[in-house]
Amino acid sequence: MSQSAKVAGLGDPFAQFNVYIGNRPNFSEYPSLDFVNPLTAGEINAISQSCGNGWRKVFNVYAKLVFGLNVDNIVSLQGTDSWQSYRDNALLQISSNTSLLFSTPQLTQVEGIGSHVVHIIMGKNYAKSLELPFTLKWLDHEFAINLEHKLLVCPYFDYRQLSNIKIIRLVELIKQLTEEKIISL
């Protein structure tokens, strides 16, 4: 990420697993947040209760995705035994290596085999609205990739748009991306 760009969102400020979303929860100071704010235990639940079912789905799908990865060198499950436990006790907290960013991706070329930096843009329409300065290779009408920046575009984190089957596909793409073995192209 560029040193000069303001990065705003929720999660670990030093995360290497970054998800970009085109909206913000209308909760606390989040609408005007201009930095990455680590969440605390119980805060995801408070946001979900205050901001509605849509945000609960975003957090649930994010936790299911990370739990489905089950790869400590990308994101540690921190001893949790279910995606619900991971969501409540680790997701978007300090040292979780996860973030949910409201700012435009400021990406630099990621070099080195085995680099575990991952960028995921949530939603095809949001990705297109960003007018990214590099090319995305669309794998189908829902998933796109840019190998140079270790970036994926996937459906919005909602049960209907990013179903469990599509979460499995996204998990495989992330694993391939971090191992630089994209075989689905």
SSE layout:
Layout: E1 9-11, E2 17-20, E3 36-37, H1 43-51, H2 53-69, H3 83-89, E4 98-101, E5 118-122, H4 124-129, E6 137-138, E7 144-146, E8 151-154, H5 164-179
Parallel strand pairs: 1-3, 2-4, 2-5, 5-8
Antiparallel strand pairs: 1-4, 6-7, 7-8
Helix pairs in contact: 1-2, 2-3, 2-5
Q: Average pLDDT, to the nearest integer? A: 89
- Number of strand elements: 8
What number of structural domains do the residues give?
1
Decide which structural class fits the backbone.
Answer: alpha/beta
Q: H/E order of the elements?
A: EEEHHHEEHEEEH
Total DSSP helices = 5
General shape: globular
Low-confidence stretches: none
* Gyration radius over CA: 15 Å
Residue share in helices?
A: 25-40%
Q: Quick one: biggest sheet?
A: 8 strands, mixed
Distance between the termini: 26 Å
Cross-sheet strand order for the largest sheet: 3-1-4-2-5-8-7-6
The share of residues in extended strands comes to: 5-15%
Walkthrough of the structure:
The chain has an eight-stranded mixed beta sheet. The chain has one domain. It has helices at 43-51, 53-69, 83-89, 124-129, 164-179; strands at 9-11, 17-20, 36-37, 98-101, 118-122, 137-138, 144-146, 151-154. It is α/β, with parallel strands linked by helices and 185 residues long. Helix 1 (43-51) runs antiparallel to helix 2 (53-69), helix 2 (53-69) crosses helix 3 (83-89) and helix 2 (53-69) packs across helix 5 (164-179).
